[in-house]
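Z., the sequence and structure:
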Amino acid sequence: MSSTEWAQAGLQAFDAVVQGTEGFRGRAGQRAMAEQVARTFSQAQLGKVDEEAGEPQRAIAVIQAGTGVGKSLAYCAPAIAIALARGTRVLVSTATVALQEQLVHKDLPALAAQMEQPFRFALAKGRGRYVCKLKLDRLAHPDDAAPDEALDDLFPEDAAHARGQPSRQETEARMQFYTSMAQALTQGAWDGDRDSLDTPPEPEAWSPVAAEGSSCTGRHCPSFGQCAYFEQRKALVGAQVIVANHDLLLSSLGARVLPELDNCLLVLDEAHHLPATALQQFASSADLSRLAWIDRLASRALRIGTLVEVQEVADIPRHSSQLRQMLQALERLVMDLYGEALKAQPNAWGPARVRVPRGALPEPLQEPLSQAAHHAAGFLDCLRAISKALRSEMRDKPDEARRLSQLYAQIGTLAPRLEAVHATAQLLLQAPPPGQEQAFVPPAKWFTLEVDGEFISLKAHASPLLPGSTLRGHLWNSVRGAVLTSATLTSCGQFDFFLRESGLHGDDAATTLEVPSPFNYAAQGTLIAAETQADPKNAAQFTTEMVEALLNDLARVEYGALVLFTSREQMRQAVDQLATTMRSRVLVQNQLPRTQLLARHRERVAAGEPSIIFGMQSFGEGLDLPGRLCESVFITKLPFAPPDDPVGEARAEWLRAVGRDPFSELVVPATAIRLAQWAGRAIRTEEDQAHVYCYDKRLTRTGYGRRLLQGLPPFTLERRGAA
């Protein structure tokens, strides 16, 4: 088939599903999106390409599809039809596991029932979301472990060691937790997926039993046949459609966990999250205070390396000792340089933080950091030699697979900390080559200090500065055909900001399409600009006045409402000033698990009672509360990024240094996307009627505020002056 025939097949599949779905109304915008998806995926050249023909043809579509367009059908139907025709697969990546599960449990089954050609689909989640049966069995029966290792494996987190041995009660509770999980797994009452547990465990309790690549021996493991993770992997092998998430996509690049990106069709849904995910994925941090793990790792590596006769174990004492000394020296030097600034900051809302200006690491830190990187690399080489020897032993002695796999896991559970030290040190040491200072973009570098009584943790952090450069280097150089979509990809009416952030600006393969929402926002929604007298930059005065206006407006709420705050302090003041009668109507984020909070909200509204959700940033996205569930959205203040974000600070500093304006180029466009997401909670269906309140007068009184307005749905605007 030709590319034209592939495109026709994709669009025909979409049309057939629309026509065959009872009660489904075709939408011009949805079909326009399906056309673009079909055209893009038919043009991309996949797999091996004749070298004489030159570079393979790439095709990437960036599509903003407004709320209500039905983007999942618009990309799924043509993409799957084209993939089946081309003998390849579709990889869909979403922002969260919840969105993955919606696709796999709702959207794709419905589509499979409608499409003429059958297809299989599967959910792909990171290895760490599944239990390692070998680790779980060991912790559920700690008598099988060496006495000096039992508590280390039950309580691997350094906090426990820093505060002394855990109590007998804590130990028994942790053991009971693992025993009950092991029983449920053995009896088939649990599938080994963390997300399917009735109550998701805390990270500290889950970490010791998580299936991680560093501690996994794969087919050599005696529990391989009952492994929850590899059972999931089997489902992926036969699936034509795989649904992953952005974290997994970026963390598994080059690891053959997901389909090869040069030979599949890639869809990035909720693509506005991709740049932030990239920065998080390629950032790194290392603890400079809690270092007991180094001695534990060295002890285990020496013992196990000697058992399998690895010569490199002779280097372990030197590397581990020097690494610990260098990290201790770094801790002292960092406190000498930044201690006063760190200790002067309150710890009420998290660790104190200090950033390295311009990414120019102080000279006293460079030598110990360089030595730490050197010895971490040497230590890692020793671990790789032991790993190789253990795998060889497993092949030669299958009867001893259980013992050898447990030895492998004992090293592997601690190895990621060593890898993090090495990666962090390398990023912190990055500096411009001589003569290239102007072109060099330094990483963001910072240190954090957390104090809890006598317990102190000093950490070093580093992150790439530009997500676009990171994505160009790690992702787009492998992708042949991709569709990126979301309801919010334009900023202030333009795609430019997202294209720069995602690494596609100036890429000849990238095209853009804006598909408007089918909703009549002017008739369905009203944006009330409720101005205050206080300047929003004066946080104390503004919050006092805003809370008073907010509470007056909340008193008129009849059904469901959502209030979005930009800080915990804002939300705390609003909660404190709630009248007794109003307090019973309000559900506050984090006072209940999210699913329980939303369930209670739905119950109240269904019963005809007012219900108001107080939330912050994470509640400004992804909440789907149609109809009476959310008739009013209250935006307390324009959602600028926190002023103390070290990566944002460092990036603004770099932009100013090269003569650019970070506020106009970075802050306003990012805020526009966030504000559009928040306002997007209001109208979810064609029948919804809703009000959006914004108490920040900068939205209507400033030039950049008017730019923000351009990026919002075209609500009817009402201005309400300060009382």
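The first strand starts at residue 59 and ends at 65. The chain has 28 helices and 18 strands.

Let me know what you think.
H.
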